[in-house]
Automatic annotation (TrEMBL), chain A:
Residue stretches making up the Electron transfer flavoprotein alpha/beta-subunit N-terminal domain: 21-220
Keyword Electron transport found: yes
Name recorded for this polypeptide: Electron transfer flavoprotein subunit beta
Keyword Electron transport: yes
Gene symbol of the encoding locus: etfB
Annotated source species: Isoptericola dokdonensis DS-3
UniProt GO cellular component terms: cytosol
Family: Belongs to the ETF beta-subunit/FixA family.
Keywords: Electron transport, Transport
Domain of life the protein comes from: Bacteria
Cofactors, names only: FAD
CDD domains assigned to the protein according to its UniProt record, in alphabetical order: ETF_beta
GO molecular-function terms, A-Z: electron transfer activity
Quaternary structure and partners: Heterodimer of an alpha and a beta subunit.
From TrEMBL, chain B:
The entry's keywords: FAD, Flavoprotein
Protein name as annotated: Electron transfer flavoprotein subunit alpha
Gene Ontology biological process terms in this record: fatty acid beta-oxidation using acyl-CoA dehydrogenase
Gene that this sequence comes from: etfA
Cofactor note: Binds 1 FAD per dimer.
Source species taxonomy: Bacteria, Bacillati, Actinomycetota, Actinomycetes, Micrococcales
Self-association state and partner proteins as the record states: Heterodimer of an alpha and a beta subunit.
Gene3D superfamilies tied to this protein: HUPs (3.40.50.620), TPP-binding domain (3.40.50.1220)
Length: 267, 325
């Protein structure tokens, strides 16, 4: 069993997230492993944990990111959780990639990994907490020609068939597909394990492979600004809200609330 | 007004929800609006589409094995959208910002080689006639503008972006079938249980007013629902309240993203994960017993107090006001 987990390096939601020249600032020290990808890592590691001894010994979990050098931080975190291999795709030509470019590059890297053996499963988070597109998993699946089982809140694998339960806005669904497939997990799918001390120490010195676009065999014209079909032309912080009107409830708080709503025509 | 063709996704096709009426309103400002469905629209839906200026509904004729529950899979909806664009030579596709529609729109964009904007909070055209989507990102703290540089533009649009308006004149709506083939590998749908909607309340995604209850409710959502009824609001929760089993749907960046005219958070601390899903609301109100609650930082109005006292009193005043009107 070989599983590739896609992990994104994103600005910390507690840091001062911002744009400069219409680009997200991804400065070192303010970035982190996308929290929702911890659920993806957990799902992959649990699948491996559930294998019998021989199969587990032969299994490999690869963490893959598309990021500048500081993205290593996401891969180190993945190593701490217990993955076997960390790969980063970095290339100046990737700057400015939109959904299509991002998915094409990630899929190309998965195909490159297939040069040394089949990849049975690609696992992702349900969203990246910066772009919040939630579309990369489905796009990667199509690029790879595999079925996508997305937003899983329950995951089971038996006899090479993946089964997930998910809740969409419209319905609760059970989906199945034989491997190879692409899986995205919701944050309700599991509770990510805490990194253990031994792995934390080991993660510091683990090798991170850095690949260029040429390494994954992708035409630079398909990604980055060159391949982008959308362009961000403007980015500005929203004006600060006026000071909050704070009322202490001394028996009339509800009245004050209702009056605020009426005054602002919100009823 | 140009001679653009704008396709609006209507899935499911039983009713035309307010988010779809918004898309039709946005679409009419860009060109001629047509609808795309994967099943036959109800009589009520057709009447509403007609009132909103839709002359043609393009209804997918799917291969037999995809006509059941599988027709809602994003791969199928995407193939339908892509085929509809090719058939009508459409310039713009609009869909609501649900997780399912986001995937379908992105996949259709991939098939068409076209630019995609997800979660637009506004759609317009620039001086060169290109489609532009505005977005509220980073928990509503930044505004961005994205230009679609391809001939076809596909966008998902958040609810409460515009006030839906019917067309100046109603039209007769015709349904035209068109064949769709799907070659993407799809999962099998072994079970599908549709969500039953509370007919008495607007849905969280679409409501103009949302009240969310958190751990501060201590499990009693009575006061939250009371005020929601007085205001005609949708009810949501924090993720922690849902994990406690007190409510079923939560607001936040992994839950439902809302941007209503009015959001009221009751007994909610305002964690970044929750803020990510509501901070773009136009007016934010909070009721919290802790004067240091982080949610107060992003509020327009707040009451420091016990929600069990404050909410029922507010509901009473509002009901009295409505009765006197
Ligand atoms: C604020 C903002 C708005 C944007 N809006 C648009 C837009 O409207 N249209 C458009 O075409 N592009 C847009 N982009 C660009 C888009 O976000 C990037 O292409 C992005 O890297 C992929 O999309 P996502 O971040 O939304 O990922 P999602 O689809 O939300 O990510 C889902 C999962 O995919 C995996 N994944 C995603 N990206 C990577 C990665 N780089 N490396 C490893 N794994 C990954 C992770 O497992 C993640 O959990 C936007 C970017 C930002 C920051
Ligand atoms: C990966 C991840 C994703 C997450 N996604 C989401 C998400 O999408 N949405 C979400 O909501 N959360 C999400 N969370 C959880 C989030 O981080 C917070 O834990 C959660 O929002 C807190 O819920 P709360 O505000 O109800 O509870 P608390 O933080 O416990 O706050 C309760 C508040 O109620 C107040 N209070 C207590 N009693 C009363 C009373 N009688 N009257 C008035 N006020 C009272 C308290 O002062 C306190 O401020 C996520 C977490 C993770 C790790």
């Amino acid at each position: 069993m070989r599983i590739v987990v896609l992990v994104k390096y994103v600005p910390d939601i507690n840091a001062d997230r911002r744009f400069e020249d219409c680009r997200v600032v991804r400065s070192p020290g303010e970035g982190t492993l996308n929290e929702l990808d911890e659920n993806a890592l957990e799902a992959a590691l649990r699948i491996v944990d559930s294998l019998d001894d021989d199969a587990r010994a032969a299994a490999e979990v690869v963490a893959l990111t598309l990021a500048p050098e500081q993205g290593d931080l996401a891969l180190r975190k993945a190593y701490q959780m217990g993955v076997d291999r960390g790969v980063r795709v970095t290339d100046d030509a990737l700057a400015g990639s939109d959904y299509a470019g991002t998915a094409a590059a990630l899929a190309a890297a998965v195909r490159r990994l297939e040069a040394d053996g089949p990849v049975d499963l690609v696992v992702t988070g349900m969203a990246a907490l910066d772009g919040l597109g939630s579309v990369v998993p489905a796009l990667v699946a199509t690029e790879l020609g595999r079925p996508a089982l997305t937003f899983a809140k329950k995951v089971a694998l038996a006899d090479g068939v993946l089964e997930v339960v998910r809740e969409t806005d419209e319905a609760t669904e059970t989906l199945t597909a034989p491997l190879p497939a692409v899986l995205s997990v919701a944050d309700t799918a599991n509770t990510p394990r805490m990194p253990n001390f031994k792995l934390i120490m080991a993660a510091r010195t683990k090798t991170i492979e850095a690949w260029s676009l040429a390494d994954v065999g992708l035409d630079a014209g398909l990604v980055g600004d060159a391949g982008a079909r959308t362009a961000t032309t403007h980015a500005a912080p929203r004006p600060a809200k006026p000071e909050v009107e704070l009322v202490q409830d001394k028996g009339e708080g509800g009245k004050a609330l209702a009056e605020f709503l009426l005054r602002h025509d919100l009823v | 007004m140009t001679n653009r063709t704008v396709l609006v996704l209507l899935d499911p096709a039983g009713e035309v929800r307010s988010s779809i009426l918004e898309l039709l309103t946005i679409g009419r400002a860009l060109g001629r609006v047509e609808a795309v469905t994967l099943e036959s629209p109800s009589v009520e839906a057709l009447a509403q589409l007609g009132a909103h200026g839709v002359e043609t509904v393009h209804q997918a004729e799917l291969p037999a094995d995809l006509r059941g529950d599988a027709r809602h899979l994003s791969g199928v909806v995407a193939a339908t959208l892509a085929a509809a664009v090719r058939r009508t030579d459409a310039d713009v596709v609009l869909a609501p910002s649900t997780f399912a529609a986001k995937e379908a729109v992105a996949l259709a964009g991939q098939a068409l080689g076209a630019g995609v904007v997800i979660d637009a909070a506004g759609v317009s055209e620039d001086e060169q006639g290109r489609i532009v989507g505005t977005k509220r990102v980073f928990a509503g703290s930044w505004d961005t503008t994205s230009v679609v540089t391809t001939d076809v533009a596909l966008l998902t649009v958040r609810a409460n972006t515009v006030v839906p308006k019917p067309a100046d004149a109603a039209v007769a709506t015709e349904v035209e079938g068109f064949a769709v083939s799907v070659d993407a590998p799809l999962p099998t749908v072994t079970q599908r249980v549709p969500v039953v909607r509370d007919a008495a309340r607007p849905t969280l995604e679409e409501a103009a007013t949302v009240i969310a209850g958190g751990r501060g409710t201590g499990g009693d959502f009575g006061p939250v629902e009371d005020l929601a009824d007085a205001l005609g609001a949708a009810v949501g929760a924090s993720r922690d309240a849902v994990f406690e089993g007190w409510f079923d749907r939560y607001v936040g960046q992994t839950g439902v993203t809302v941007a209503p005219r009015l959001y009221i958070g009751a007994g909610i601390s305002g964690a970044p994960h929750h803020r990510g899903g509501m901070q773009a609301s136009q007016v934010i109100v909070a009721v919290n017993s802790d004067p240091e609650a982080p949610i107060f930082e992003i509020c327009d109005f707040a009451v420091v107090g016990d929600l069990a006292d404050v909410l029922p009193q507010a509901a009473e005043v509002i009901r009295a006001h409505k009765a006197a009107r």
